[in-house]
Structures are given as C-alpha cells and as structure tokens.
Amino acid sequence: MAFTEEEVKSEVIWAMKALYNKGLMTGVGGNASARLPNSEEIWITPSGLYKPRLTEEDLVKIDLEGNVIEGVLKPSMEWHFHTEIYKRRSDVNAVVHAHSPYSTGLAIAGVEIRPITLEAALMLAKVPVVPFKYPGTKELAEEVGERIMGTRLLILQNHGVIGVGYEMIEAVTAVEILEEVSMMTFIAKMMGRLIEIPPEEIEVIKKLYRI
Ligand SMILES: [Zn+2]
Known about the structure:
CATH architecture: 3-Layer(aba) Sandwich
Order of helices and strands: HEEEEHEHHEHEEHH
Shape: globular
CATH class: Alpha Beta
Number of domains: 1
Helix content: 40-55%
CATH superfamily: Class II aldolase/adducin N-terminal domain
Structural class: alpha+beta
CATH topology: L-fuculose-1-phosphate Aldolase
Bound molecules: zinc ion
Number of helices: 7
C-alpha cells in the first residue's frame, strides 16, 4: 500500500511495466493512475509516451477536474474516466487500463465469462461491459461511471479493460485474473466444450471462503 506520494508514483510505474510484460497492452496502449487514500488529486501516466519506460518524473498530477497540478507532460487522454471513477468510489485508490487481448476479444465476440474456475465464479461473476464510445471522451467516462459501482473490473467494448483497487496490486491482479479466465474460456470454446462449476458448488465455495 502506498503511504507517500513517492510510493504512489512508483506503484503507477510498476503497474505499466507489469501489464506490458504480461502482454496486456502495447507500449503506448494503456494507462494507470493512483492516489493517496481520500486525496482529491491523482498521479496519472502521461499521454503518448512508451509506458514501460516511464520514470516517476514523467507522471502528471491532476485534480479530479483534470487540471494539471504538477508535471510537465500532458496527462493521459483517458483522464476523464480515471477521475470519474475516483469521484464515485472513495474505496478506490488505483485505476489501470489495458488492452487485454483475450478479455477484449471475447467481449467483441459476444462471449460471456462463465464460472469455469474458482476465481471466475467469485470475482468475475458479473463484469459489466461498457458500450463503445470514442476513447478519451467525456461520454466514455460517463458510461464507465454508471457501471463502476460494486465491481473491480469493466470491459470496454471494442477497446480494452479497466481494473480498480484499494491499492495498485489489486487493480493489476483483477486485470490479470480476467485475462487468465478469458484465455481458458477461449481454449475450452475452441475445443468445443466448456464445463462450468455447478451453482451449488459455488454456494459451498462462497461459504467456505466467507464471500
Ligand atoms: Zn485504451
């Protein structure tokens, strides 16, 4: 968990490297932001730069209206949906956006994530899909804002995914798990069969893990 501004910044840098190394985004294709708990200001990745090579000095601090407070570069063009999420979710201190190929591809194909693993059954029971809006627009941010309550993940139709968390590791992990389950779903579908965990088993699992 980040307790200082420096830690917040290093988490953002780490998230971009982690998502890139996992093949969940191209060098210019994703973005991330984070804040200290209850802060009205966030650190966000800059627009246009090659994200896995970012350093702390490249990050931009903005308020929740998008005004630049610190930094020389332009904030990510997707700052609208980042700030929209922080405005609505006081429990969220980290937001990541990636172009996860399998998660996004399944949504493009209209395939729903089914309870095929423990994590899929518990975490991904309902991943809302945000209808297509042009990247970087207020319209996209509004659609995101309407669906972000009560979830850790969103799929942006024909675009990518958003993961949120109390801290950065949660947001990144959510995006990783969604992609893993999407790959499994894709493989099972290709093989022509998809065996789900029965609903009664899911109930037992929920009790067992107290979810
Ligand atoms: Zn994007």
